[in-house]
# Entry
Amino acid sequence: DQETSEAVRQLIEMKGFYNLEKPGEWKSIVDLQFIGAMVHPGGGKNDIPERLKRHVYMFNMSLPSNISLDTIYGSVMRGRFHEDDDKWDSGVVKIAHNMTGATISLLEKIKSTMLPTPDKFHYIFNLRDLSRTYQ
# Structure
């Protein structure tokens, strides 16, 4: 929100705050480092103000493609369920090899259907949810 952003900006710029209990007394904050993360603005999410943004370095990490996801998570399944292992029936191995594509498709369907709204702001699905399937 606006107040929090301005408080963080003041802390970065001025290295401290005025004491609310003793008006006029300055509280200096030293040896403090900041790290943060955020999602792209939109869907009820606001961008941070330019006055705060000028103090931070930003970089964007795009999500991996579905082919990359299939390679990453599919290798986990293929490593666990492979044909050379006598523990698994061939039907189980076949299902395990198709599981990654089906899970990725299900996640994409959920993300496109169950969009976040002000009433359902917790409807945010990401790679963490896909990872939980493989734990």
